[in-house]
Input
Amino acid sequence: MRTLGHGSSAASIVLVGLTRDEMGQIRESLVGEAALPSNPVGFGDAVSAVERAQPELVIVSFSQGSEAPLAIAPALLRERPECVLVALSDTSQAETILAAMRVGYKEFVVLPSDLPRLRQVVHDAAYTMESDEDAGLVISFVGAKGGVGTSMLTANAGAELAGLNKVLAIDLDMSMGDLTSVLNLQPTEDITSLLSRSSRLDERLLVSAAVIHSSKLHVLAQPGDPGMKVEYTPDDIYAVINVAARAYQYVVIDCGPHIDDATTLAISVSDLIVLVTEPTVISVRDAFRRIRHLSGLGVEADRLRLVVNRHHRDAYVSTKDIQANLGLPIAATISDDPVVIGQALDEGKLVRDTNRKSQVSKDISGLLSILTDDGEEPAEEKAAQSGSFLFGLFGRG
Output
């Protein structure tokens, strides 16, 4: 999973119980390194302040005794396990330092001698991204337009991955998500139960909200009522995907054909974006527009995988024309088989369970090679010729 780290921005900090003198030293020492609050909070308000701010660091004063700072540490870490707890004191006592380490403090800073060390700790928190090694691969399926088969491919590709991996499929089509319909699932919970608790979300809550398909694919659904308005913020969506990437080896996201706040966030953190189109002029034209939009969102070409669904030999737009005009190699084609696909969708079955020997089933199985590779795509000739009829249709302005 790609993290939305701070890069060159300042670290977010909550200050607890600091005296006026300590506040002055902290402000002078950390200017430019941290986004400091105007005032410290008291010990009674510390947990709620951390819940609101979701900081990288919490600096807690020990100058007025160690009892309250030691008692508050477990609650702070339950609320924000990834934050760095820093103990601040004007004296260095071995017993106090040891007690602080035991309850979860990562650093014990003695003022003013340890201020350079404090600056380094804050700097590291601001510039260090979450470890990709610990996160699962996040893959978003995006439709060039409605009806190109994004949900079908998300469900079937997720089921293929689930054969050997722990996989979660998330339906993020907030307008008309139908991932559970494709798989004939009747969930008792949906994504709204998690979005409303995003600040307290953990792996246990996430896993319990998912419905499990017979393929072992876990699915996080949209509400069953399509008229229900889902209330959320981008931070809520990030929390769900972030926890999912810690709990599962693969997270496949059905973004549908719409780019809204939820799918924009998903695309931003995805390791791969699978753009699904069809070999028709309208679908390829919309794919061209979608690529331009994704580029504007900062999506690099090496994160994109172009998949042509419903591909057939006599398609009006050839694969050569598609590659030439979209400027992307086709990573995979999915054969057009309306009989097998129609039966699978009507019965809520996987394509492989409908007809394992069909070419479309084999093509879907072959998607694993583009979803689990190392990101290195072969450099295919783009062949964007000025005489191409699609080139004239789309333009390059």
In short: Residues 180 and 186 are 7 Å apart (CA to CA). The longest strand covers residues 304-311. DSSP finds 18 helices and 13 strands in the chain.
